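Re: export button greyed out
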Amino acid sequence: MKDAVFIYSEEQLGYSFSDTHPFNQKRIVLTLDLLKKSGAISDEDIVMPRSATDEELILAHDPKFIDIVKKAGKGLISEEVGSVYGIGTEDTPIFPNMHEASAMLVGGTLTAVDEVMEGRAKYALNLGGGLHHGFQGKASGFCVYNDSSVAIKYIQKKYDARVLYIDTDAHHGDGVQWTFYDDPNVCTLSIHETGRYLFPGTGAINERGNGDGYGTSFNFPIDAFTEDESFLEIYKTAIEEVAAYFKPDVILTQNGADAHFFDPLTHLYGTMKIYEQIPRMARDIAERYCEGRWIAVGGGGYDIWRVVPRAWAHIWLAMKQFPAPVGKLPEQWLTAWQDDSPVPFIETWEDPNPLYEPIPRKAEITEKNAQMLERALHIVRSQQ
Ligand SMILES: [Zn+2]
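Workaround output, generated via the alternate export path:
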């Protein structure tokens, strides 16, 4: 068995709304190249994704919605019809072959699932996935099909396993949460900037699941301007206690990299320290509860030059159990891409310290997050 596989083909880059849209899959190319030039990945580590079939997409999406996406990608629907299904909007514009490109990203996550569940690899990474805002019958927030929702349904059907979904994107993992809101065999856990000022506005503590699924939906909404220490405290405590309570067979992590201080769309103050720790702690949980079974996908991340390649490289490095690198990034990588970047690169694996001016409200924010954590874990702690 391999320790880890990296799911990738150039076909994943076809998921592109426009040259100016913030969601830009060039991030994957930059990440893979950084890993190659660091000597951390070889061609044998890379597995080609397949496309998801309609039968698979239907596990988590309405046939009518799939039909509309297919037609939209061929220019066959009106703006009015598109807007009913969340496409052709400012966030999620229509682009040629939208269905094929979206199905390819879902297929990448299904490929990752099969690699892990059939025992060919302990861990699998599909950075093309992580489209956590996709709903059953509607696209939303840059996401058409929800690869994680389809993948979890696929895991249930094919492998009959209990899945813990952990989402550290700065936005609430709403699409996945609502898909499994009634399901006691899937636990969703999302840490995100509070929805008070940020899309999609949901992800409150009291969204705990429904019916039989009550107590298997966990939300950890953190305050704007939250920094590394508080973020990691919430993350570590949350995943440890929820994993011990739920006892998953497999873990699926969504690794949006938009909680960084540089990210243009959110208001969190994370640095590369959180991106070094997030995957290492997830791997520990997978080892402790799931005999290692861990599938990781990408997600948000809109500073594609300074943040995402380093942050996502850390997921692969954690999977390979390489120590977290320090110091200068490979010179060859910097020279290959610096001219394309509109901003000067951070030239080291770590961020400069300090990265920003001290925040006067730090103590208050930390305290607020700690109180939130206590309330969010109420069900878990009351059962101990
Ligand atoms: Zn996000």
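Strands lie at 2-7, 46-47, 121-126, 163-167, 186-193, 217-222, 250-254, 294-297. The button fix ships in the next patch.
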